[in-house]
Amino acid sequence: MKPAPRPDNDSMRVNALHQLNILDTKAEERFDRITRLAAHTFECQFSSISFIDSERQWYKSVFNFDATELSRDISFCAYTITNNDVFVINDTHKDDNFKDSEFVTEAPLMRFYAGIKISINNYHVGSLCVFDTAPKQFSSTDKRALQDLASMVESELQKEVLTQAAEAMKRYQEQLDKTQKLTGVRNTILEKIVNAESLHSVLLDIVQAIESEYHNQKCSILLLKDNCLYSGAAPSLPDFYNQAIEGIEIGLGQGSCGTAAFTGKRIIVEDISTHPYWAAWVELATQAKLGACWSQPIKAANGRVLGTFAIYHPKAATPTKDELARIEMFANVASIAIERQKSSDLIWHQANFDELTQLPNRNIMGEHLKKALEAAKRNKTQVAVMFLDLDNFKDINDTLGHGVGDALLIDCAKRISGCVRHKDTVARLGGDEFVIILNDITEFSGLEKTAQKILKAIEQPYHLQSEIVHSSASIGITIYPDDAEDVASLLKNADQAMYGAKAIGKNNYHYYTKSMRNAALKRMTLITDLRHAIEHDELFLVYQPIVNMTNGRINKAEALIRWQHPTRGVISPDDFIPIAEETGLIIDISNWVFDRVCRDAMIWRKTLCPDLQLSINTSPIHYTDPDRCITQWLERMLVSRTPPQAITLEITENLLMDANASVSNKLFQFRQAGVDIALDDFGTGYSSISYLKKYPTDFLKIDKSFVHSMSEVSNDKVLCEAIIVMAKKLGIEVIAEGIETEEQHYILQKMGCEYGQGYLFFKPLKYEDFNALLEKSASTIDKSTMRSSCDIPRLPT
Questions:
Q1: What's the CA angle centered on 177, arms 174 and 180, to 5 degrees?
Q2: Residue 458 CB coordination number (10 Å)
Q3: Is 650 helix (H, G, I), strand (E, B) or coil?
């Protein structure tokens, strides 16, 4: 037998059943007489009135058999409540769905069944049924008669509902009459709600009103958010208790309040020390001197649970009817306050946020900008204001319709928001105009990078309502305090700069200030000069030797790039490599470096050092560019006949932190070809050890920050020693960078570090100087004279 399908409104139906308060009550003659009458009327051996709970069928009245409840999954009556008409099975043996039921194959050996739903407020909460051990026919007259009997059951239930409502009203009125003071308090609280006083103030008044009237009671109001309860007001409960239950997840057995919020029912725990709901918190409750807890769910008008209202007693206690009414009354008052606050929040949101994109609108944007300026003034930082206007939005709106235009604005809002930090603000002023507020600006490059990122994001195609739409944006940028110091002036400046961006060709950004324009021009000049440098041989390499710490031999070096600018002299890599990374020029530079290193390595290996190995720093960008991927170097090595053992690729943890399977595969391709991999600046990232397990690694380069401050008694010594020991266990050789003193050299050598690099040995050497060093080393080897590490030949620097 298959379980009966559940109605779409089953949860609401079950809630309606629970509101009848009839489940698990004693048998009553008013229902028993109806089941007897039904059995005699239809000449059936058995009859019942039952109610279908969420997971069970519970019997209120039975005739000629004993039963209290059974699982809903095997219930015939569960099918009945899904039918608007009488549900009839003339012969269960001939019905494929029911013939294997245990009620058919075993006692009571059911052959015939007829049932009719019992409804309250249009919810089918139960059924009246008759059944027999012999098959029967059930006529339309029989169906009407069964319906009449069901109506009698419904009448009895309606009487009960009305009786309960009348009794509740009576209790409520008696409570009001007996507690005029609390009624006055309630009215005062309602007045505060009307006057829009803060939610916390109102909830605190509710709690204090009861506690002042009933001195042995402590009250708590908890608010429900994301299935967890948070403190609304509980001034008399100990702080440690409030902190312990803060954010508790609701559920069955989660104390009185957690269970009440979960079930939507009042939970009365008369003795905390013995009740299973409190098993996990008995010790906490004892420490807080709490003996009983009665909790009432706070519900919205639609029945949704908003939180809980609870009364605690120092000892085990059972509530009176008056106390239950009082709990219910103030839970209702709390619900009014909470719903009023939610309505106020909704009104505030509608007043301050754009309805279409859900971004802040002009009102709240102005407040955000004002606060950002105040913070920048205190912290002596800058704020950037970007005014963004979509190019040709009117044409898109007019051509494809407002629906597509609205969808474009929504998508643009998401793309812009995805390009900025969480602490920044993106607002929509109206139409196709957006404002971006970038807080705590400390360097120009980050600001420009954000503008480029936004433009690139917006120019990507949009797939909207079966249309592919292309758009772009113009951005005006102004800076506080360089350009202006008030909100209105900054917005005006950004607006003017935006028109400047449109004037120079759209899909662009433009600075308002002369100083920022000059900085941008300087940067663009540097980019232009860098392109020129690549094409006109202004770049050159230097090599810093890597010394074998055991015998002082030099057969390794790191290739480092320098730029000899025709007018500015030598430019440090720190000044031009970041710009090369941002613009993608780093790939051209890296390819140039690789070709030069291969050429130099081939010459030196043939003439001076057959096992020379030169390492090259690689850029993360080079591993992800689809058109100019770094794996093209493998083909270049074949063409130039460069042995793979002559090259080491140095990678940083930044590459591995963002690496995917594609990057990992590229590293393995180099490794399989025979090229060694060195992990540079080891120890400065977040999860270096995990990288050693995932990626191929031949060398670890201990970052110079550890070596620089290393001494016999320093923590850095311990860290370096741990790195070396770990590397040896993994079969990885270690290179220590930044060795500047004999003490550092001695300590690392004693630890078993294989290689060293630093100014103690050599500064980076030009081609001619490194060539001379190799000649001297080769001469020394030819004479079979092995120098100690302290006798390493040094050249003047």
A1: 140
A2: 24
A3: strand
Residues constituting the chain: 797
pTM: 0.43
- 180-194 vs 321-352: helix crossing angle, rounded to 10: 10
The tokens of 703 are what? 């970052």
Measured distance CA(428)–CA(434) in Å, rounded: 4
Q: In this structure, how many other beta carbons lie within 10 angstroms of the beta carbon of residue 47?
A: 27
442 phi and psi, to 5 degrees? Answer: -120, -15
Q: How many CB atoms lie within 10 A of CB 172?
A: 14
Residues 6+ apart with CB under 8 A from 109: 103, 133
Q: Kindly report the three-state secondary structure assignment for every residue of 94-107.
A: HCCCCCCCHHHHCC
Given a contact cutoff of 8 angstroms between Cβ atoms, the answer to whether 264 and 331 are in contact is no
Mapped onto helix, strand or coil, the DSSP state of residue 366 is helix
Q: Is 274 exposed, middle or buried (0-12, 13-18, 19+ CB in 10 A)?
A: exposed
The amino acid at residue 385 is: V
Whether residue 140 has pLDDT greater than 50: yes
What's the pLDDT at 794?
43
The answer for residues whose C-beta is within 8 angstroms of residue 613's C-beta and 6 or more apart is: 555, 556, 601, 645, 646, 647, 648, 676
Two tokens, residue 338: 């909470």
Q: Where are the beta strands (DSSP E) in 400-495?
A: 425-430, 433-441, 462-464, 467-469, 472-480
Give per-residue pLDDT as tens, 266-309: 999 999 999 999 999 999 999 999 999 999 999 988 889 999 99
Closest Cα partner for 590 from 554, 624, 546, 557? Answer: 624
Instruction: Fill in the amino acid letter for 466.
Output: S
HEC string of 609-631 equals: CCCCEEEEECCHHHHHCCCCCCC
DSSP state for residue 73 in the 8-state scheme: G
Mind spelling out the 3-state secondary structure of 242-277?
HHHHCCEECCCCCHHHHHHHHHCCCEEECCCCCCHH
278 touches 290 (CB < 8 A)? no
> Is the pLDDT assigned to residue 762 strictly greater than 60?
yes
Question: Which of 250, 245, 243 minimizes the C-alpha distance to 228?
Answer: 250
Backbone angles phi, psi at 310, to 5 degrees: -130, 145
3-class state of residue 389 by DSSP: strand
The whole-angstrom separation of Cα 507 and Cα 523 is: 19
CA separation (Å) from 428 to 91, 412, 496, 509?
69, 11, 17, 18
Q: DSSP of 693-724, one letter per residue? A: HHS--SEEEE-HHHHHT--TT-HHHHHHHHHH
Bridge partners (DSSP) of residue 426 are 436
| Residue found under tokens 């429900």 | 224
Q: CA-CA distance, 482 to 406, in Å (whole number)?
A: 36
| Arithmetic mean of pLDDT, 328-333 | 85
Q: In what order do the strands lie in the sheet with 112-120?
A: 69-71, 56-63, 46-52, 123-132, 112-120, 87-89
SS3 content of the chain, % helix, strand, coil (to 5): 50, 20, 30
CA–CA gap between residue 412 and residue 402 (Å, rounded): 15
Torsion over CA: 570, 574, 575, 581 (sign): positive
Per-residue pLDDT tens for 56-65? 999 999 999 9
In terms of phi and psi (left: phi > 0; alpha: psi -120 to 50; beta: otherwise), the region of 269 is: beta
Q: Which residue has the tokens 């997840």?
A: 249
**C-alpha triplet 281, 251, 222: angle, nearest 5°:** 70
Report whether pLDDT(685) > 70.
no
* Three-class SS state of 761: coil
